[in-house]
Design brief:
Blueprint lengths: L20 H20 L13 H20 L4 E7 L5 H13 L3 E8 L2 H10 L1 H4 L4 E7 L13 E6 L12 H11 E9 L16 E7 L4 E6 L4 E5 L5 H9 L2 E9 L3 H4 L8 H4 L2 H14 L3 H4 L4 E8 L8
Parallel strand pairs: 1-2, 1-4, 2-3, 4-5
Antiparallel strand pairs: 5-10, 6-7, 7-8, 9-10
Helix pairs in contact: 1-4, 2-3
Length: about 325
């Protein structure tokens, strides 16, 4: 197994001294069960996609379901999945459930996260799935800034979704992506917040914040919640070319696009708009058409709510030692 020894870089911003593993873990530990619903919707209804990121979630799921279908259509009956920064484990549970539906008879899936409380939630929510024949679904507390424990080319599908990469030091991103390439035999799927995205406080909906401010130079976000809780954390926003660059050495980039350019900005809000507006099928159809048209347009994609990257591991790449 290739081992990469990582060192933590130092930063000039005075608050960044607190941006350690324990700080990020503490933020999500404190968020607790409230984060489970905020991040992915109701964990008891895996495919409802009714959370705050519902539109992007549905688009992301279309991509993941297609990758699973392609592997099964190739004749494979086993699949190995890794979710780096899995949070409460919802996405990994979705993948495992759908893999079973497709007829995979051997499913090995591991998720890890820095938050002990999120891992406890993931283990609790996955207990029934993990008891099923042919399924090995495990969750661990681990830090993505250190070498992955997986063997070379031992993972068929690697996930790293939403805010995970944003919380890492920029200086470590190339090595992290190199580790993804080392362990991945098939595809990697990553989503991040782009530079032109709408604001996020990453642990809850934006209306729960009394005040927030991001320092663009230091990649730092200060948040004061309505309940008085204060959060300070590293949070990097990505340019599309930058995201591509980090993954391109190890992966052939199959897709790079914006998720939710228009839907979140223009779709009606049932808390405010009348039902006659909310049920406007013509508007929904037009928004979907606009998303398809402009999601890969360089002038628009960095203004989406999220960037999506799909890569397939390059054959014969040299592994970093």
């Amino acid at each position: 197994m290739t081992t990469i020894i990582r060192t933590k870089s130092r930063h000039s911003h005075p608050l960044l001294e607190e941006a350690t593993l324990s700080n990020i873990a503490g933020i999500y530990d404190a968020a607790g069960d409230a984060y489970v619903a905020y991040a992915d919707g109701d964990p008891r209804q895996l495919f409802a996609f009714d959370g705050l990121h519902a539109y992007a979630d549905r688009r992301l799921w279309t991509v993941l379901a297609e990758l699973l279908r392609r592997r099964r259509a190739s004749g494979a009956t086993s699949i190995r999945v890794l979710d780096a920064g899995c949070g409460p484990g919802t996405w990994l549970r979705r993948v495992v459930a759908h893999a079973q539906t497709l007829g995979f008879t051997s499913i090995s899936a591991r998720g890890f996260d820095v938050s002990q409380r999120q891992i406890r939630s993931a283990r609790f929510l996955s207990r029934e799935q993990n008891a099923l024949p042919g399924v090995s679904l495990t969750f661990d507390v681990a830090d993505l800034e250190y070498a992955l424990r997986e063997r070379d080319a031992s993972v068929d599908l690697t996930l790293c979704l939403y805010s995970v990469l944003s919380h890492l030091p920029v200086a470590s991103l190339a090595e992290v992506c190199s580790e993804f390439a080392r362990v991945t035999a098939g595809h990697v799927v990553a989503t991040v917040r782009p530079v032109g995205s709408t604001p996020t406080i990453f642990v809850d909906s934006i209306e729960k914040a009394r005040r927030f401010q991001r320092d663009e130079q230091a990649d730092w976000c200060d948040i004061e919640m309505e309940n008085g809780r204060r959060i300070g954390a590293r949070f990097h926003l990505f340019e599309a070319a930058e995201l591509r660059r980090y993954f391109a050495d190890g992966f052939e980039i199959e897709d790079l696009r914006g998720l939710d350019l228009f839907h979140g900005r223009f779709s009606p809000d049932r808390r405010w708009n009348p039902a006659s507006v909310s049920a406007n099928a013509q508007l929904c159809g037009e928004l979907a058409r606009l998303e398809d048209t402009f999601s890969t347009n360089p002038s628009f994609m960095e203004r989406a709510a999220h960037l999506l990257l799909v890569g397939q591991r390059r054959p014969g790449i040299a592994l970093q030692t």
